[in-house]
Design goal:
Helix content is 59%, strand content 11%. The chain is mainly α and 151 residues long. It has a domain of 100 residues: Winged helix-like DNA-binding domain superfamily/Winged helix DNA-binding domain (Arc Repressor Mutant, subunit A), CATH 1.10.10. Helix 1 packs across helix 5. It is globular.
Amino acid sequence: MTADPGLIETAQCLCLASRRAARAITRNFDAALRPHGIRATQFTLLATLELKGPQSIGALAEFMGADRTTLTRNLAVAEEQSLVAIRAGDDARARIASITAHGRQTLKRAVPVWRTTQTALTNAIGIGTADALRQLSGGRAARNTQGEHTT
């Protein structure tokens, strides 16, 4: 089969490359966080709720750049594990998510392994690339007090 010469460049598609890279990064974080009983998505959820406090599902989805349906499923799993609590909001349609004491303990234990993985992956792709990813995703590149990059 002869490939259309005009399609050859699609092998270098940024969309494909970014999706493959995202899956590889997620696998690294998932493997590191597995001993703590959580995945990367749950870690991010717990960290966000700890930093921002109780949030409506809509506000949480917007902040995390997640689809509401996907976030609702992730919250249900986290709630089953007693990592988060979901309660009714002021509006009957709104639901509010908050981190539980168990979620806070899990997060605290997981942060060191997250930090090690974050540093290793940042070193692997380079600080400039990590900053570019954050900026492209709508985040900001900033150094924390330990000189590491964070969003």
